[in-house]
Amino acid sequence: MYTQPRSSLRSPSSFVTFRLAKLQASLNAQATGLLKANSGLSLVEWRLIQILRMHKSASLSEIARIVQMDKGQLSRKIKAMVEKGLLRTETDKQDQRVQHLKLTAAAKRLSEKMMPTMEARQALLLADISADDLATFYEVVDKLDKASKQRNIA
Amino acid sequence: MYTQPRSSLRSPSSFVTFRLAKLQASLNAQATGLLKANSGLSLVEWRLIQILRMHKSASLSEIARIVQMDKGQLSRKIKAMVEKGLLRTETDKQDQRVQHLKLTAAAKRLSEKMMPTMEARQALLLADISADDLATFYEVVDKLDKASKQRNIA
DNA sequence: ATAATTTTGTTGACCTGTCAAATTGTTTCG
DNA sequence: CGAAACAATTTGACAGGTCAACAAAATTAT
Description:
Two copies of one chain form a homodimer. By secondary structure, chain A is mainly α. Chain A is built from six helices and three strands, in the order ααβααββαα.
């Protein structure tokens, strides 16, 4: 017996992706606002700083792999951050193409300063959500992520 | 007794928002690819067409409210879509500022043509997800959405 | 009626995200 | 060695998204 697709597409908002897109926009606006008000950092800058806080030093390509961010965008962003005094670059001794990126003291200070706010935000976001529900949520996110990699449909 | 924040922020990828951002990028790429291959529509065009399929006729401001999209972006997009022959505009009789937007036959044909693919995609995305898990997922999305509207933190 | 306010839509400026081509340095292999 | 293949980064072009200023029309308040 044939059953209707679970979420019929009569309404655009029933597309999973519509809802996620709206959520994403809202989350971005919130984070961008907090960062701007408290540190002057952009969202991308904040993310790069967090990556480098973890990895101490990484090259553009490594970062691109880790966050799945576009190389081109990264290249430009890094250039700007070096000019703003947030990053230092060191050319690799063996391979002169690769630049190792490191945080400057200024970037570390800004990161320290923002961290409580960003953790408070994360806590606020998750406040009403039970551990079980959150686990289920992440499972679904992972499944969607996997399915979204598939490029041949119909 | 104090417990660690549920998701400690040692790793950037533990931010809910990191994961959602990556998922979003992947979903967008998938949809954009399908649309381009099968119809030449952009993602935004597809979304606007779906909104108008539901509402028959709507003004720019109404759409902006429905999808929470920027007025400026909409204005330009609509102009382009009128030029491409996807939309018609009709000036309101009572209020000469408002333009009612309607789909052209061409837009409806394209939408019909794409719909099976987009429904198949939606089905693929949700294939492995139980109804219960999906419900939980949507609940969490709604909670995140609400929390993301809060602008004063810390 | 008319001045002040609000609403609708347009425009300019600017940032982010994606794709592809170009550049430069490194490695592989005949 | 030297040509071809490969990898890291840069650049150009363009779509998407956000913000703020603006003009025109409508509403309201006096």
